[in-house]
Specification:
Elements: H1 30-43, H2 46-52, H3 57-65, H4 70-97, E1 99-105, E2 108-115, H5 118-128, H6 130-133, H7 144-159, H8 167-172
Antiparallel strand pairs: 1-2
Helix pairs in contact: 1-2, 1-4, 4-5
């Protein structure tokens, strides 16, 4: 019987393997590059990830632009993609579970309540299943007037039976 594989210890197993940029005198060692990429995948913010490894975001961007840093740049892109997936997961969780907000009365904390975001819920539903919940943007129509014309044209059949229904009210008034 085979033993189960040990759990992965890396915080970002989905990141592509990096080819460290040639060691530099400015402190971007291979280990520091890996730590930066792990931090970037976790937080999604270049300045925070750079600070976590004792470097500046400017030096991180310089390193990314260097000739020979293509592997590092690909890994950076992978870390950002991982951060975006985490952001999507957090948004979905927040839409489903809401967020706890404090309730104050006369300046004193008296409890909490759960607040839900209808806008976030609508956004997620529309973008994850536009066939059911509607696509908020018709990508075939780039001009806002064209989109409005399409909406009016789609709504017009519902108005057909109402011709003259309001005339009597306005004449009587």
């Amino acid at each position: 019987m085979t033993e189960p594989a040990p759990p992965q210890t890396s915080a970002t197993p989905a990141l592509p393997a990096t080819v460290p940029v040639k060691l530099r005198l400015d402190g971007w060692t291979a280990a520091r590059q890996r730590q930066f990429l792990d931090a970037l995948a976790d937080c999604g913010c270049v300045s925070i990830a750079a600070r976590a490894v004792g470097m500046s975001k400017e030096s991180a961007y310089r390193l990314r632009r260097r000739a020979g840093a293509e592997g590092f740049a690909r890994a950076w892109d992978g870390a950002i993609a991982h951060g975006i997936r985490r952001l999507g997961d957090a948004a979905l969780e927040r839409a489903l579970l809401g967020e706890e907000v404090p309730v104050y009365h006369k300046g004193e904390l008296v409890g909490t309540r759960r607040r839900y975001s209808d806008r976030l819920t609508t956004f997620l539903l529309r973008h994850h299943n536009p066939a059911v919940y509607g696509d908020p943007y018709d990508h075939n129509l780039t001009n806002p007037r064209d989109r409005l014309s399409r909406k009016v044209r789609d709504f017009a059949p519902a108005l057909d039976g109402l011709d003259g229904a309001f005339d009597a009210e306005t004449d009587a008034g």
